[in-house]
Amino acid sequence: MNSFDSNEHSHRRYNPLTGEWVQVSPHRARRPWQGQTEEVANETRPEHDPNCYLCAGNQRASGDKNPHYTDTYSFVNDFSALLPDVPGGEITDGELFRAKSEKGICKVICFSPRHDLTVAEMEVEAVEKVVTLWKNEYKTLGQKDYINHVQIFENKGAIMGCSNPHPHGQIWAQESIPVEPSKKQAHQKAYFDSYGTTLLSDYLEQELQKQERIIFENEHFVCLVPFWAVWPFETMIISRRAVTNILELTADEEKSLAAAYRQLAIIYDNVFKTSFPYSAGLHQAPTDGMEHTEWHFHMVFYPPLLRSATVKKFMVGYEMLANPQRDITPEQSAKMLKSLPKEHYKRLR
């Protein structure tokens, strides 16, 4: 047998941020496809939709009316999953039956009054205003005495559960620290306690030396495909400077984050020349009043598309019962993403 080649042979990769493993099976990328196919919907949206509950000036289901906002706008979600007035309480019935009340606030962030845009098609100055709003919301929500974690995220595309195509994101702020950030906190703290540097600082330094999975970089941020990526075109935007949360970003770093966010969204759209769906979000320190020098600010992107604009990657079978699995290697997907035009495909016509 030939010597092991990670581009050809099945193997497992370790995620030091979560302590979990992903199965990589590069040889499976050559198998014939007999899975789901769909028609591509070429949707043309108006700049303003009178029936959209996120458009400026329109009435929402709650009866409240949006102001005639001109850049960004946020409001408490009319159908919040978390509520601030939940009475405290818990269920403790031995070790096997436990529950605890959870208070929180859910907000919607409109990125633009333009109904027909996405981040990829917005001007960078407009995306900067989104980052500024993230910063303000993280500070305001995090200052509430019962809010210990603020999760900022965007679901883009109907297949990611996005119920409205208007460019927007969400914030869920709550009492407890959720599962994924908790795992990342534990592993980052263990690393920081051992080495005195953040895990992602050392990881980023080595990735920049290798240049195998880097997609692009600017003055303050680097976009790459993580060595342990699960989704076919999963990426991460990491701050060059080890900041614990968005409040520590300078004005120049905010602009660089906005530019990186927009640039990645453009590259994604260029993969299959479609509005590329994904779930994306910020991972940063909790707002529990504790010092979290172990945290290193980063943004993660989990897109589901696999082979075309219509073929999705599903987490089923082995992945639900055992652990995540991918076919195309992170190095292969990074090479593909890096080779794509940096201008949006609609502007290249």
Shape descriptor reads globular
Give the count of structural domains. Answer: 1
Mean pLDDT: 94
| Uncertain residue segments | none
Biggest sheet statistics: 9 strands, antiparallel
**Using only CA atoms, what is the Rg?**
21 Å
Helix content percent band = 10-25%
Question: What do you see in this structure?
Answer:
The protein has 349 residues and is of the alpha+beta class. The protein has a single domain, classed as HIT family, subunit A (2-Layer Sandwich). Helices cover 24% and strands 20% of the residues. The chain is built from six helices and 14 strands. The chain has helices spanning 124-142, 179-195, 199-210, 251-272, 318-321, 330-339, and strands spanning 11-15, 20-24, 73-76, 90-93, 97-100, 104-110, 149-156, 168-174, 214-217, 221-224, 235-239, 278-283, 298-302, 325-326. The chain has a nine-stranded antiparallel sheet with strand order 3-6-8-7-12-13-11-10-9, with helices on both faces. It has a three-stranded mixed sheet with strand order 1-2-14, with no helix packed on it. β4 and β5 (97-100) form a beta hairpin. α1 crosses α4 (251-272). The longest helix has 22 residues, at 251-272. The chain starts with 10 loop residues before the first strand and ends in a 10-residue tail after the last helix. The mean pLDDT is 94.
